[in-house]
Structure formats: structure tokens, C-alpha cells
Amino acid sequence: MDFEALKTTILTFVETHRDWAPLIVGVLAFCESLAFLSILVPATVLLVAIGALIGASGIPFWPMVIAGGIGAGLGDWVSYEIGRYFQHGAKTIWPMSRYPRMVAKGEDFCRRYGAWGIVIGRFIGPARAVVPLIAGMFEVARLPFQLANWSSAFVWAFVWLAPGAGVISFFNA
Length: 173
What we know:
Strand content: under 5%
Number of helices: 9
Oligomer: single chain
Radius of gyration: 17 Å
Shape: elongated
Distance between the termini: 37 Å
Helix content: over 70%
Structural class: mainly alpha
Number of strands: 0
């Protein structure tokens, strides 16, 4: 199945089964935020498209943002815990082992910004799922990590869903 077919299938499902839409958004946000899985799931494009669907079909906006925030927060949390568990051994796992320069940049980023790096990294495509993993490897304290994780997760979900929802609503007014 190619990406266009997958996108069409997901969008059709969301439109047809509106009650499932928050769960789908949450799962997509989780996949987008989880280390390694984010490489395989093109969730960002799907979230923007679902945002447009929200505006066009009248699906309630805030439950979608909340679900997206929960999914993104859980994805980063799991990535962080994987990093804490494997510590520097995580560097030997694919895809980290194939991109040592990216890992080194992530390490520098975490050293420089600490928990604030989670907030910043969430909005930088390739770093989104890697920064929490590296934060776990370097044992960024859990409380600052979780504060940065959860606050930025909901902002991130809003940022990806709002433009489509708002633009469609604006043109329909």
C-alpha cells in the first residue's frame, strides 16, 4: 500500500467513523513521537490532513487536540524510558547506529538545553522522537522532562491540527 492510499483510507475512516477520530489522532501522534517508529509512520502529514477534515466536516476540535497531546506525550515518555533503560547501549540499536552524527548532535542538544530541549525538539522534524530517547540516555531528571514533555505535547498537537481546521472554517464562513 502506498502513502496516498494509506492517507485516503485513514481520512475516509476518520470521516465515516467520527467517534473513532480522537483515538486515531492519538495513535498517530504516539507513532510520530515514538523513537524509531516515527521513521516508519508518516503521521505529521496525516495530522495536518485530519486537521483539514476537522474544519470541513464539523468534527469537534478540542477532543482531537487533547487526544493528539496525549498520544505525543506518551510517545515521548516511552522513548525517554527506553533511553533510560538502555542508556548508551541505545546507540547500537538501529537506526541510531546508522546515524552517529545525528546522535552526537542530539547529545549536544540535550547537554545544552536539558529538559527545554524536549520542548524545542518536539517542533524539529527528525529530532522529535530522538531527543526524548537521548534525554533518557543522559538521565535528564524525570520531573523536568515530564513537565516539558506534556506541556509541549499539547501545544504540538494544536499546532498541527489547528491550521487545517481553521483554514477550512475560515473559507466556509
